[in-house]
Amino acid sequence: MTALGKVYLIGAGPGAVDLITMRGARLLGEAEVVLYDALVTPEMLALCAQATLISVGKRSGQRSTAQTVINQQLVECARRYQRVVRLKGGDPMLFGRADEELRALEAEGIEVEVVPGVTTALAAAAATKQPLTRRGIARSVAFFTSSTAPGEPDHPALPATDTLVQYMGGREAAATAARLLAEGRRPDLPVVVVENCSRADQRIVRLTLTGLANGLDDAQGPVLVMIGEALQQRPQQAS
Amino acid sequence: MTALGKVYLIGAGPGAVDLITMRGARLLGEAEVVLYDALVTPEMLALCAQATLISVGKRSGQRSTAQTVINQQLVECARRYQRVVRLKGGDPMLFGRADEELRALEAEGIEVEVVPGVTTALAAAAATKQPLTRRGIARSVAFFTSSTAPGEPDHPALPATDTLVQYMGGREAAATAARLLAEGRRPDLPVVVVENCSRADQRIVRLTLTGLANGLDDAQGPVLVMIGEALQQRPQQAS
């Protein structure tokens, strides 16, 4: 019986192929098999053209592989291959279901290494040139999602940070804005929405909290919503 | 008169040279001049050996270049060079004083591009294999710092998120823990402290909220403090 392989949980970053880390790119090039999410692009998969590719795409509103099935696939790959990569959009440790995959692998005694990635919020801040913190104005940032798990309340309290970033915020963002208005945040608080962050079809929309409460146009791709005084456009900022 | 150069604000990531993005590494290799922080390592500066290197190191407790001086240096570099890189530890848009640099450059009509980086919190989550979110347990994360700016209150409210991450948390973390206990968080809430994240001398300490309130040993390097139920070590987790 051969030794169990090692599994690398790697953050692909926000989408653009060159926003993966050098370490992530090197390990992709050495992988025997790569299990990848729906949001990973063909350009990025070209970095691991030598590997067997397995799509385990999860994307809201579309059929996807159940998490328990993904966990089992990872275990089976580690039995068959020495170098297994699980490639996740953004960073694996933030809204990535990594806890479940780590537990499944650890239960079988399989070695795991985690390689961090650029999380979409920071790529969106870069793309819009809007720092999420600002001296004297914004010194705390919260990342959250409204996706619910079984047994969780639908609407836990919103974080009371200076800057708020809602991941997977397309449909839920209007409700977030309405709740922030009800909590007393000011109606003209700046909001920046980024769709398909860092990709060729990236779209940036600037509005206010009131505008966000009125709802977003239907987005086709993943949407990130940034809210707070730090998102105020600067006087001489280009676009 | 020659045209003004372009300035790239680039996130170096947490420290390890191969945790910079491929885009960041490429732009470093093309730079004529690089202005870098104290936390950027010599190994990373080897990626821009062709460039003029200017240290503008800022590190708490040590003498450093004032922000207004850095702003002025950036403007002067963009007048003399076509490709200027401002290399910052972690990600430039999170606790990076980017707002001030962007304003100074925009006021002179200088073009700026921002390249995101792996922020230290996510590298610490990877190094400790502790996801910051966990289905059903932790769905919001706050990043904050206690560093104060002139005119700010010393102790704004702590974010009421499931997971809290305090940057530059060495001296301030005990006070944070005491305040969280006073707010009713449970005494045995898991805490993970990471010093010199991703570097050869990385140090990981696991404790509880009560333990953190009792104070940390003196750290030599930058310290990141992660607090919350998501930081609970898994039964079969190695180290």
From TrEMBL, chains A, B:
<dbReference type="GO" id="GO:0019354">
    <property type="term" value="P:siroheme biosynthetic process"/>
</dbReference>
<keyword id="KW-0489">Methyltransferase</keyword>
<comment type="pathway">
    <text>Porphyrin-containing compound metabolism; siroheme biosynthesis; precorrin-2 from uroporphyrinogen III: step 1/1.</text>
</comment>
<comment type="similarity">
    <text>Belongs to the precorrin methyltransferase family.</text>
</comment>
<protein>
    <recommendedName>
        <fullName>uroporphyrinogen-III C-methyltransferase</fullName>
        <ecNumber>2.1.1.107</ecNumber>
    </recommendedName>
</protein>
<dbReference type="InterPro" id="IPR014777">
    <property type="entry name" value="4pyrrole_Mease_sub1"/>
</dbReference>
<dbReference type="InterPro" id="IPR003043">
    <property type="entry name" value="Uropor_MeTrfase_CS"/>
</dbReference>
<keyword id="KW-0949">S-adenosyl-L-methionine</keyword>
<dbReference type="InterPro" id="IPR035996">
    <property type="entry name" value="4pyrrol_Methylase_sf"/>
</dbReference>
<dbReference type="InterPro" id="IPR014776">
    <property type="entry name" value="4pyrrole_Mease_sub2"/>
</dbReference>
<dbReference type="InterPro" id="IPR006366">
    <property type="entry name" value="CobA/CysG_C"/>
</dbReference>
<dbReference type="GO" id="GO:0032259">
    <property type="term" value="P:methylation"/>
</dbReference>
<dbReference type="InterPro" id="IPR000878">
    <property type="entry name" value="4pyrrol_Mease"/>
</dbReference>
<keyword id="KW-0808">Transferase</keyword>
<dbReference type="GO" id="GO:0004851">
    <property type="term" value="F:uroporphyrin-III C-methyltransferase activity"/>
</dbReference>
<feature type="domain" description="Tetrapyrrole methylase">
    <location>
        <begin position="6"/>
        <end position="212"/>
    </location>
</feature>
<dbReference type="Pfam" id="PF00590">
    <property type="entry name" value="TP_methylase"/>
</dbReference>
<dbReference type="InterPro" id="IPR050161">
    <property type="entry name" value="Siro_Cobalamin_biosynth"/>
</dbReference>
<keyword id="KW-0627">Porphyrin biosynthesis</keyword>
